């Protein structure tokens, strides 16, 4: 009874300051078990998973959207994979390594996904590409974007051969190029050119915009490549850390431009690389962002209606390196 009275009090307060739509969204979160449900505040503010006010983009800089976007930051161990369900379309950014390939395929099947509309291979390292090969062999894929350079690894040849044999359209995007996926705008923000001495700097990176919700999703770009991104509009609520949170990436300059409220780091628990790095974590903590880590928390899911973002779990905010 006390809980009911508390909820009613909160609803009355929300209706008085933010309107019935916000109260409805808050109540929906409670009923659906989303403990971190956000609700709409007046003007250009929403709330994050901790109930903190987060300034969003002004009305004239965003486009109204319908439906919702769900983002799955998959726990693929020492690798990277981000799955987007945007209304009726599906996009996958990287797919993790060989050990996690079957997990990624099973995860998509569990969601009753029967087609991938857009596949993005940030670059050709095994821990990003193997899972994409598994997806190619399991689901129809309508369009592939990749980094375009050539390398001599088994997984690279498997990836390229299957795409060619199945005549799947493949493109090498330019920085600044945008595509539409399910009502979201996906802009390629890196690299500015290809042929870097360090192949990690040929990694694709994207900004995803769905209404007022923005995410920056990185591959393995180093600080050198990040420097070339700074001329673009990088502001985002969510930042998927570059190169598993390594010290040589996630520069202060980039974090300042993105200015995220949340950072997600994908790396394996007790990995051999010391990821995430002490200095990278220090920079992330200094930015004021809250932290999620797949190595500690497993797969992390965020859902947005274009106005608010709701997470399936609380942030860990553990800035201990290499764990």
Topology:
Layout: H1 2-18, H2 20-32, E1 45-47, E2 53-55, E3 69-73, E4 82-86, E5 89-93, H3 101-110, E6 116-121, H4 126-136, E7 141-146, H5 154-165, E8 170-171, E9 178-181, E10 184-190, E11 205-210, E12 213-217, H6 223-229, E13 238-240, H7 252-258, E14 262-265, H8 278-286, E15 290-293, H9 294-297, E16 300-304, E17 309-311
Parallel strand pairs: 5-6, 6-7, 7-8, 12-13, 13-14, 14-15
Antiparallel strand pairs: 1-2, 3-4, 3-16, 4-5, 9-10, 10-11, 11-12, 16-17
Helix pairs in contact: 1-2, 3-4, 4-5
Features:
alpha/beta, Metallo-beta-lactamase, Chain A, 8-stranded mixed sheet
Describe the structure.
The structure is a single chain. The protein is built from nine helices and 17 strands. The chain is α/β, with parallel strands linked by helices. The protein has two domains: 2-54, no CATH class; 64-311, Metallo-beta-lactamase, Chain A (4-Layer Sandwich), CATH 3.60.15.10. Helix 1 (2-18) packs antiparallel against helix 2, helix 3 packs across helix 4 (126-136) and helix 4 runs parallel beside helix 5. The chain is globular, with a radius of gyration of 19 Å.
What is the CATH third-level topology name of the largest domain? Metallo-beta-lactamase, Chain A
Cα(first) to Cα(last) distance is 43 Å
Q: State which percent range the strand residues make up.
A: 15-25%
Instruction: Give Rg in angstroms.
Output: 19 Å
Main sheet makeup: 8 strands, mixed
Domain count, please report it. Answer: 2
Helix-strand category: alpha/beta
**Annotated CATH architecture of the largest domain:** 4-Layer Sandwich
CATH class designation of the largest domain: Alpha Beta
Q: Looking at the structure, what is the overall shape?
A: globular
Low-confidence sequence ranges: 1-61
């Amino acid at each position: 009874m006390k809980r009911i009275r508390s909820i009613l009090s909160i609803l009355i307060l929300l209706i008085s300051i933010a309107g019935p739509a916000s109260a409805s969204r808050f109540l929906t979160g409670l009923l659906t078990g989303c403990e971190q449900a956000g609700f709409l505040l007046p003007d250009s503010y929403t709330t994050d998973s901790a109930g903190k006010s987060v300034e969003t983009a002004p009305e004239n800089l965003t486009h109204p959207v319908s439906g919702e976007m769900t983002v799955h930051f998959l726990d693929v161990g020492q690798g990277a994979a981000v799955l987007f369900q945007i209304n009726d379309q599906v996009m996958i950014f990287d797919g993790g390594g060989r050990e996690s390939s079957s997990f990624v395929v099973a995860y998509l099947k569990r969601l009753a996904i029967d087609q991938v509309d857009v596949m993005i291979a940030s670059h050709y390292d095994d821990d990003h590409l193997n899972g994409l090969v598994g997806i190619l062999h399991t689901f129809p894929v309508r369009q592939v974007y990749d980094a375009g350079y050539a390398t001599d690894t088994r997984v690279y040849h498997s990836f390229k051969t299957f795409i060619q044999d199945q005549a799947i359209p493949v493109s090498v995007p330019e920085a600044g190029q945008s595509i539409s996926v399910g009502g979201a705008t996906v802009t390629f923000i890196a690299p500015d050119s290809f042929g870097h001495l360090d192949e990690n700097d040929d990694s694709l990176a994207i900004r995803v915009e769905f209404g007022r919700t923005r995410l920056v999703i990185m591959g393995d770009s180093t600080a050198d490549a990040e420097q070339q991104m700074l001329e673009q509009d990088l502001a985002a609520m969510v930042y998927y850390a570059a190169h598993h949170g390594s010290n040589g990436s996630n520069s202060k300059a980039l974090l300042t431009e993105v200015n995220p409220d949340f950072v997600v780091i994908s790396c394996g628990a007790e990995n051999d690389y010391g990821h995430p790095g002490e200095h990278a974590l220090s920079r992330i903590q200094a930015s004021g962002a809250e932290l999620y880590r797949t190595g500690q928390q497993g797969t992390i899911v965020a859902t947005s209606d274009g106005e608010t973002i709701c997470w399936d779990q609380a942030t860990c905010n553990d800035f201990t390196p290499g764990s």
